């Protein structure tokens, strides 16, 4: 049975919010409310438990290097790591943006320091010599339950180069911008309902169709089963983001 309440847990909401990505949570809340769906938001910080059965969607944003390092150690602790793996195995949605995305994999090598990853997907991130990968970006994605490919548009700003292992699939194909490492034409990662991406700024206000996919998937619905909304303003924001990326 589809659920009438979307239960969201934001991991490290005070530390992993460098790019105003709290706006992603606001978009989810508003689009639920406009459809008469309930919305429950809780947070889990450093040292606080994560109950994998209590949430439909787990969100991890991006943070400063120091804050990301603190969160990486906590996320890789047995309790948090096992809870996140249990949530993913149960089909819960996990959305990780920028710094949170880097922590989904095996680790993040930052010169002499290596942050541990939670090992949820097969990827590795390395900070190498060279410029930061900054700018507007657009990718083409295909998601279960949708009629065809869609475009996600946003902004990227990362020094890390993320490379997917043989067991990982990208979230999408780069149409404009840099993507995971600026070279292989791939952006993000998707494994079941686990999604990682460098697109922020924040992501969901510019791509409300993707917000709806997350809501539907997390509440056990087909994407087309959600009641339509008047997305005149939202569609304009999406078009502007695409234009900024050169599409």
Describe what you observe in this structure.
The chain is α/β, with parallel strands linked by helices and 247 residues long. The chain has one domain: 3-Layer(aba) Sandwich (Rossmann fold), CATH 3.40.50.880. It contains six helices and 14 strands. It has helices at residues 22-33, 65-75, 78-89, 99-102, 208-218, 232-244, and strands spanning 5-11, 38-44, 57-60, 93-97, 107-110, 113-116, 123-127, 133-141, 150-158, 160-164, 172-176, 186-187, 189-191, 194-197. The strands form three sheets. A six-stranded mixed β-sheet has the order 2-1-3-4-14-13. A hairpin with a 2-residue loop joins strand 5 (107-110) and strand 6. Helix 1 packs across helix 5. The chain is globular and about 50 Å long. The N and C termini lie far apart (40 Å).
Task: Describe the secondary structure blueprint for this structure.
Blueprint: E1 5-11, H1 22-33, E2 38-44, E3 57-60, H2 65-75, H3 78-89, E4 93-97, H4 99-102, E5 107-110, E6 113-116, E7 123-127, E8 133-141, E9 150-158, E10 160-164, E11 172-176, E12 186-187, E13 189-191, E14 194-197, H5 208-218, H6 232-244
Parallel strand pairs: 1-2, 1-3, 3-4, 4-14, 5-7
Antiparallel strand pairs: 5-6, 7-10, 8-9, 8-11, 11-12, 13-14
Helix pairs in contact: 1-5
Key phrases:
Rossmann fold, 247 residues, 6 helices, 14 strands, 4-stranded mixed sheet, alpha/beta, 6-stranded mixed sheet
Sheet with most strands: strand arrangement:
2-1-3-4-14-13
Largest sheet: 6 strands, mixed
Calculate Rg over CA atoms.
17 Å
For the record, what is the CATH homologous superfamily label?
Class I glutamine amidotransferase (GATase) domain
CATH level 1 class label? Alpha Beta
Mean pLDDT: 95
Kindly report the CATH topology: Rossmann fold
Structural class by SSE content: alpha/beta
Taking pLDDT < 50 over at least 5 consecutive residues as the criterion, the unreliable ranges are none
């Amino acid at each position: 049975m589809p659920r009438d309440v979307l239960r969201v847990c934001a991991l490290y909401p005070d530390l992993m919010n460098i790019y105003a990505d709290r706006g992603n949570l606001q978009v989810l809340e508003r689009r639920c409310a406009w459809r008469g769906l309930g919305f429950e938001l809780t947070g889990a910080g450093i040292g606080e438990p994560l109950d994998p059965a209590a949430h439909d969607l787990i969100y991890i944003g991006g943070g400063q290097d120091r804050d990301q390092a603190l969160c990486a150690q906590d996320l890789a602790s047995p309790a948090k790591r096992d809870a996140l793996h249990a949530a993913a195995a149960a089909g819960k949605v996990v959305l990780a943006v920028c710094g949170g995305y880097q922590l989904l994999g095996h680790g993040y090598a930052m010169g002499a320091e290596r942050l541990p990853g939670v090992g949820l997907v097969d990827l590795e991130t390395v900070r190498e010599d060279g410029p930061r990968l900054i700018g507007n970006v657009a990718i083409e994605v295909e998601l279960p339950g949708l009629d065809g490919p869609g475009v996600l548009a946003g902004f990227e700003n990362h020094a890390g180069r993320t490379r997917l292992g043989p067991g990982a699939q990208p979230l999408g194909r780069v149409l404009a911008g840099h993507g995971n490492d600026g070279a292989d034409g791939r952006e993000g990662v998707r494994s079941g309902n686990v999604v990682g991406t460098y697109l922020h700024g924040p992501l969901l206000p510019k791509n409300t169709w993707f917000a709806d996919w997350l809501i539907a998937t997390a509440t056990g619905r087909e994407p087309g089963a959600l009641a339509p909304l008047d997305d005149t303003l939202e569609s304009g924001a999406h078009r502007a983001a695409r234009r900024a990326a050169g599409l």
